[in-house]
Amino acid sequence: MINFIDVITVLMMGTSLMVFGLRKYKLSIYAYALQTLLLVIVFLLLHFKYGAHELLLWAFTAFLMKVVFVPLFLLKLVNKLSIINEDEPVGGFFISPVIALSFSLAVSMMFYKVFVHFSIFKDALPLFAASFIFMIGIFGFILRNSFLKQILAYCLFENGIHLSLALMAYNSHELVEIGILTDAIFAVVIMSILAKRFYASYDSLDTSKAVNLRG
Fold this sequence. Notes:
With 215 residues, the chain is mainly alpha-helical. Helix content is 80%, strand content 0%. It has one domain.
């Protein structure tokens, strides 16, 4: 019998690579919105499968904040700056996704067994996917120079945390989830404002061009 939670978390891994690797900003944002919608569906499936009532509120809150608000906010930023494509990243558009994929798979294979040991739900593949998405976010910070891509990397990083939290500690108080979501929204808004000011100063979102900020 097909385990739909496994299938959806694998799709989330695929969308992580799309967010990381797609050159067009709008496509990356759409991929992020799709991944977060898949995350909401995972919350709902866990709710129905295990009777985890807390995840119903998590799903509703995540849909409003992360599927609707954050993508619309980032699309508005892209339209305002009139930017279309990302500048050449560290290692190029082909090599950097290969590096991120390889190391994220390797690190996730090392750690997911530890997470299974401490998790409430003993679903190995979703825990592996949570680690993978988290690591792709980390490599997004390391390998992408674009300010906007680094915001999206933070969003991936945060989706990985949400998925692992739902699997490992879904019965945490609702305020924990709302607090994490609120932090994420404020972080995205603040980083977007900084990105806009950066673009106004350097006529680019490529952070490597800010050589005058090096100490």
